[in-house]
Amino acid sequence: MTDRPDLASATDSFPQTLPDEFSFIRRHFRRLAGKDALDLTDDAAVFTPSPGKEMVIAADAMVEGVHFLPDDPPDTVGRKLLRANLSDMAAMGARPFGWLLTLACPKADSRYDDAWFEAFSDGLAADQALFGVSLLGGDTTSTRGPLVLSLTILGNVAPGHALRRNGAQEGDGLWVTGTIGDGALGLLALQGKVADPTGWLAERYHLPRPRLGLDLSGIAHAAMDVSDGLVQDVGHLARESGLGARLDVDSVPLSDAARSIVTDDEGLALCLTGGDDYELLLAVPEDRTTALLSHCQERNIAVTRIGEFVGDAPGVHVVRHDGSRFPLHRQGWSHF
Amino acid sequence: MTDRPDLASATDSFPQTLPDEFSFIRRHFRRLAGKDALDLTDDAAVFTPSPGKEMVIAADAMVEGVHFLPDDPPDTVGRKLLRANLSDMAAMGARPFGWLLTLACPKADSRYDDAWFEAFSDGLAADQALFGVSLLGGDTTSTRGPLVLSLTILGNVAPGHALRRNGAQEGDGLWVTGTIGDGALGLLALQGKVADPTGWLAERYHLPRPRLGLDLSGIAHAAMDVSDGLVQDVGHLARESGLGARLDVDSVPLSDAARSIVTDDEGLALCLTGGDDYELLLAVPEDRTTALLSHCQERNIAVTRIGEFVGDAPGVHVVRHDGSRFPLHRQGWSHF
């Protein structure tokens, strides 16, 4: 506790002003709180679960310098974490409704001032409106290290409709929504290493688009979201299902912006392993292909077949159209 | 992403070994996972809420060097955070059932090795058995700063039975469970600043005792847990109820270990403001005093009247038996 600051004012009968920490929460977070959050003034939030639904819950953390850049626009920082969590809800086929946030804030770093947190909160308010969720609670603390955010997300799903990773079957098609590699290329663009004339790639890095609103429980055998790199995450989906997977690199969907940059195997490898995609990976049996395509088309979400689940060879087999192996030096990100 | 380590092994067809991060989770956390956690292999946990109950949810974070000491026994570090969260459940009158954990782990700090996390997990396993909760999910990441832990706790409460902070009424007695100041003195003991021959104080600092198992919904008008300092937290309870409070310092219960150290006003002030108590503050009308005492006695939990809620003077009035003001230079901890 020695590094906790004393309150500025000394008093034996405390005044009407709040301690700074509580004033901070009131200024920046109370406006995000839903009714269940009890104005963030209690020890916990209280709510009545939706009757007849299962509840889905997940937590993710982000660290400055690892998951976001120190000079990222503050209105995108909280949103990136919220959207990463919303992507987990999308992967399970759940409808999100609430979230909690803890902040470990660098006390000695003057960048994180009131204006920064106002913009941070503005971004979250915009996303709350966009995605129909509200803040339930959280905690703020100080740290001598970088900013660390941790977010817990809650959602509902009809009983038995949650999509798992372990349901893929041999012969299922391997599908992915949207495009792959934009987030990883966006990071390079923000570092000045590749061109991004339209800003599309940087926006994909700052603001992933969680694929909420699909109802794939009668269509997909298994699902997960791509966050740590396509190849690694295909590996997770296959392994949890007791299978291997063939990944056809030439089928992996790239955006126009990515295509203009990716001119060699090295660039393509970055897309396949770079992470920050937040698209959905799906295992879909052949006889539900039409159902998948029409379901996604109705919701204006692109979906592409990028391979197949195989029973005879564990691992991810990353191949060209001609069947030759595509050279990769890693599969994705690991923090350890 | 530049500071994320590449995987040690290069491969184009991934081997049967897991990436290190996933192997880490499997080694240390899968054994804590309940059935709803889906073995921690999915994007989220899925569970059926208890029918006819409200759900209670809270989150707290702890940072090395702020909430725990770098050389604290690793088996106590996770437990301290879990118990702090369980104390929030106790304050709401809820019965906890599950929790999620995110870890931002200092990658360059060799103390945080496999043995450290094995002990960390051992401690959590012991507390899971003690408190009847199980791990639902979480996330691990790396940081260049200190260890940051964030924990979300879930519990159930009968509809309308959650204890709020805003229900205290003028004339209600102000009560507290257990003893105050042991955690703050325990920190001093661990720093070698005060004697702690039995180790009682250090244990209170390392392992708070959440006051679960009380059912005070028909007895107390309001409740909260004492975590940031008794005076400050009494202030929260009073303010949220639109009242002031008189705190009788000479009535504040101290343990025998604390009494042997606290010999002057300065020592008593530390107990009143030091935090890390995790006892319950209660607002109880006079005509329920007997019910409170017998309810707590049956559960072998000490409870002491330490003041009263007042309607005519906002703030916390910290006074001696003779009515004189007790000198305080702060009310409690604030992180900002």
What is this structure, in a nutshell?
With 336 residues, chain A is an alpha+beta fold. Chain A has 9 helices and 11 strands.
Characterise the protein shown here.
Two copies of one chain form a homodimer. Chain A has 336 residues and is α+β, with helices and mostly antiparallel strands. Chain A folds into two domains: 20-157, 60s Ribosomal Protein L30, Chain: A; 173-319, PurM-like C-terminal domain (Phosphoribosyl-aminoimidazole Synthetase, Chain A, domain 2, Alpha-Beta Complex). Chain A has nine helices and eleven strands. In chain A, the strands form two sheets. A six-stranded mixed beta sheet of chain A has the order 7-9-6-10-8-11, with helices on both faces. In chain A, strands 2-5-3-4 form a four-stranded mixed beta sheet, covered by helices on one side. The relative contact order of chain A is 0.15. Strand 2 (54-63) of chain A pairs antiparallel with strand 1 of chain B, so a sheet runs across the interface.
